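Subgroup meeting minutes
Present: P.N., E.W., G.H.
Scribe: E.W.

1. P.N. recapped why we're keeping a running log of single-chain structure predictions: easier to compare across weeks, and new members can see raw inputs and outputs side by side.
2. G.H. added today's entry (109 aa).
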Amino acid sequence: MSLPVVIAERAERDMASQYGWYLENADSVVAERYLHAIDQSIQQLAADPALGVRRHFQADELRGIRSLQAARPFDKHLIFYRYDARLSIERVMHGARDLPIRLIELPEN
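Output recorded in log:
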């Protein structure tokens, strides 16, 4: 049984930005594979939300957030989420970012 999935506007913007980056710097095939990998990972989380790792950030707004690496070959990207009766995807970003700061900021356009 899968949890219902809600994708926050910030996460939608993160994914759109990364998709656009792949379109400009690679091609549409890579961009589509990126979206597929993210979708596949979100579906895995909906089926088993405990797959991810609980993160420990100091900012109050990040308490209780978890993360999961996206499916390969995009496993450098992390999906940040929370769950209870539903799976809430909060952000999607490259793991090499300054995460405690970038998770709170608005996504780039």
